[in-house]
Amino acid sequence: MDISGIPVLNYHAIDENMAGNQESRNVSVSLQTFKDHMEWLYKEGYKSINEADLRSLVLKRKPIPGKHVLITFDDGYYSLYKYALEILSEYGFTATLFLSTAYMGKLYGLDDFYFVSDDRQLTWDEIRALSANGWAIQSHGNNHVKMNHLDKAALIKELTESKSAIEQNTGKQVDSFSFPYGLYNKMVLDQLAAAGYELAYSVHPGLLFPSSEKFRIPRIEINNMDNMDTFITKVKTGYISPSNALRSKFRDIVYANPSIKDIIEKVTPMFGFGNH
Ligand SMILES: [Zn+2]
After folding, report:
1. pTM metric for this prediction
2. Beta bridge mates, 47
3. How far is CA 129 from CA 45, 81, 124, 169, in A?
4. CB count, 10 Å around CB of 116?
5. Pairing of strands 8-11, 28-30
6. Cα(163)–Cα(172) distance, rounded to whole angstroms?
7. What is the pLDDT confidence band of residue 270, given thresholds at 50, 70 and 90?
8. For residue 12, how far is its CA from the centre of ligand 1 (angstroms)?
9. How much distance in Å is there from the Cα of 195 to the middle of ligand 1?
């Protein structure tokens, strides 16, 4: 029996020539890099697990058999439809998209949002095409706002309206969430279940185990800073380095109680552990 954890990879956009601005370059990977990553996973024998299957195993605290990876994208850039769909199909992989629903078909261009070259937001037609090809479309909220800054009413609106917009447009149920910027507090965690979510994905690094906390599933960010060596280390261990692993595991222990996390972040923002 394979009792090792599974890597949940977090991508954003694919930028063919990496011609976007600095922020976009930080969260994008080049087309060639993305192809290299998928080819490596395939050659190493990884299979992409369906998000619903993974969710069911986590909720039942069951071991995850075999050599699996969950490939996720945040936000909802057109480059996923343009590039990722075909590349993943070549290897028999599917992905999960955590979609921000307020910008459908538009360029983002917002100050606090990653402006990825001319990579606009997907349209609902493109979302339905991804869904028809086996991609899971889950929620990343409406407006891509910092959830820990919202009052309760605004928070509930972000959680419920994005969920119902995706459900209406895909005809499929939405059960999982990922936090914009990886930010959350205790109230966000408390409201997830009330809004009907079963799982939420963080950007805390590490591998996913059946014992992982259901509203703070670890995810490994993959971006333009990664080379093939760091990518392989992240997939195999969940962390970029042993020191990052140590720091992250210590953070997870301290933050196990979300109220303590909130207090630490409030009183010592300069010395907080961050989310990554
Ligand atoms: Zn995002």
Report:
1. 0.93
2. 68
3. 27, 8, 9, 11
4. 25
5. unpaired
6. 10
7. low
8. 7
9. 20
C-alpha 141 – ligand 1 centre gap (Å): 9
Give residue 191's identity as a one-letter amino acid code: Q
Residue 176: φ, ψ to 5°: -130, 155
Structure tokens at 134: 């086996």
CA dist 276 and 270 (Å) reads 15
| pLDDT level of residue 22 (50, 70, 90 thresholds) | low
Q: How many CA atoms lie within 13 A of 127 on its CB side?
A: 29
Q: How far apart are CA 199 and CA 217, in angstroms?
A: 7
3: CA distance to ligand 1 center in Å? 31
Distance 2 CA to ligand 1 centre (A): 32
Name the residue with tokens 């339905």. Answer: 128
- For residue 143, what is the DSSP state? S
Domain 8-241 CATH (choose: 2.60.40.2890, 3.30.360.10, 3.20.20.370, 2.60.120.760): 3.20.20.370
Binned at pLDDT 50, 70 and 90, residue 20 comes out as low
What is the distance in A from the centroid of ligand 1 to the CA of 47? 25
Integer CA distances (angstroms), 233 to 49, 69, 130, 242, 244, in order: 20, 14, 29, 10, 12
